[in-house]
């Protein structure tokens, strides 16, 4: 594995909050954490990514992180902060990106669309399974770890409908988009997605709640969702690339980002939630750089780390 660190200091400081992964303009996987804003340190792993695809990152219970991505030959790769990059002999559908979530004891679980068009899962150590569920070409799944330790997968089926695990919600999704999923403290899940009419909707486990928000989502982009124990927060690109946040916590909705933050057209934001309930959003800004904004510290700003056109970052809290 080739590892290259650019820094004004010797190396990255210890992980103390979030870590973001993205495809740099170099076409390789990059990782950066909150210390960048004081040390200007970022890691270019040197691992090439498939053009037009995006990574997914998760924090691990051992204090490290793992990033899943599609490599240049079309196979699934996982970069582990401890062991480095590993290529799995698992072919992915062209133009799609994997999702990854934390498992027990420092392990991870990944979901991806195989080159056969079916939803697959892979786990630490290389074991993999075909879940036998057909996905829409050009879309990617999302995955979360439920409170009982099992996993839930949300995806656009080959019929164009939203599915979660074996449940068909019979809700049409916009072509080329993917849902976001978050685990709830009651053992269930919440899914946010763009409907085939271009609006943001969400659903709760087993049709307990299906909500049409009335907010438009930029065509071809996908929302991301996180849960903080009291309610969930959805981040999404709306008209002309402006970003919005939508809260649902019993106190109503809010759009604190409003139209003040512009993302690159055709890209999607990512959100994570820290243990203190603070959220952090990462996205590709209108200039093509990685940008991070924090609910506590405000707009941390453009990193001046150039991203590959048409790709989106992923951000996760590191325990």
List the helices and strands and how they pair.
Elements: E1 4-6, E2 18-23, E3 28-33, H1 36-39, E4 42-48, E5 56-59, E6 65-70, E7 75-80, E8 84-91, E9 99-102, E10 108-113, E11 118-123, E12 128-134, E13 142-145, E14 151-156, E15 161-164, E16 167-172, E17 180-183, E18 189-194, E19 199-204, E20 209-216, E21 224-227, E22 232-237, E23 243-248, E24 270-273, E25 279-284, E26 289-294, E27 298-306, E28 314-317
Antiparallel strand pairs: 1-4, 2-3, 2-28, 3-4, 5-6, 6-7, 7-8, 9-10, 10-11, 11-12, 13-14, 14-15, 15-16, 17-18, 18-19, 19-20, 21-22, 22-23, 24-25, 25-26, 26-27
Structural class: mainly beta
Please count the helical segments: 1
The CATH topology turns out to be: Neuraminidase
Assign the CATH superfamily: Fucose-specific lectin
Number of strands: 28
Gross morphology: globular
Main sheet strand line-up: 1-4-3-2-28
Number of domains: 1
Largest sheet, described in full?
Answer: 5 strands, antiparallel
**Element order: H for helix, E for strand:** EEEHEEEEEEEEEEEEEEEEEEEEEEEEE
Determine and state the CATH class: Mainly Beta
Based on the structure given, which CATH architecture is correct? 6 Propeller
Please give the radius of gyration in angstroms: 18 Å
Helix content: under 10%
């Amino acid at each position: 594995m080739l590892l290259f660190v650019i820094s004004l200091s010797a190396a990255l400081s210890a992980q103390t909050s979030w870590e973001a992964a993205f495809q740099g303009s170099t076409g390789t996987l990059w990782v950066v954490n909150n210390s960048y804003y004081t040390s200007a340190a970022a890691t270019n792993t040197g691992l090439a990514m498939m053009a037009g695809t995006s990574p997914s990152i998760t924090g691990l219970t051992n204090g490290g992180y793992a990033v899943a991505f599609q490599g240049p030959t079309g196979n699934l790769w996982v970069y582990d902060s401890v062991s480095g990059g590993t290529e799995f002999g698992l072919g992915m559908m062209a133009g799609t990106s994997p999702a990854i979530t934390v498992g027990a004891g420092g392990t991870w679980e990944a979901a991806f669309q195989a080159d056969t068009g079916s939803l697959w899962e892979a786990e630490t150590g290389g074991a993999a399974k075909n879940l036998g569920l057909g996905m829409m070409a050009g879309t990617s799944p999302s995955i979360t770890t439920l409170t009982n330790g099992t996993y839930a997968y949300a995806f656009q089926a080959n019929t164009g409908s939203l599915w979660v695990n074996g449940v068909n919600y019979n809700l049409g999704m916009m072509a080329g988009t993917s849902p976001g999923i978050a685990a709830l403290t009651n053992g269930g899940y919440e899914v946010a997605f763009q409907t085939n009419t271009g609006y943001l909707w969400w659903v709760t486990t087993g049709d307990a709640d299906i909500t049409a928000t009335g907010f438009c989502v930029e065509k071809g982009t996908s929302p991301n969702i996180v849960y903080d124990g009291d309610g969930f927060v959805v981040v999404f690109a709306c008209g002309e690339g402006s970003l919005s946040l939508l809260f649902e916590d019993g106190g109503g909705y809010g759009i604190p980002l409003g139209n003040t933050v512009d993302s690159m057209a055709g890209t999607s934001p990512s959100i994570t939630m820290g243990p203190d309930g603070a959220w952090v959003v990462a996205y590709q800004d209108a200039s093509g750089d990685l940008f991070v904004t924090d609910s506590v510290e405000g707009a941390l700003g453009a990193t001046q780390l150039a991203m590959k056109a048409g790709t989106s970052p992923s951000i996760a809290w590191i325990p």
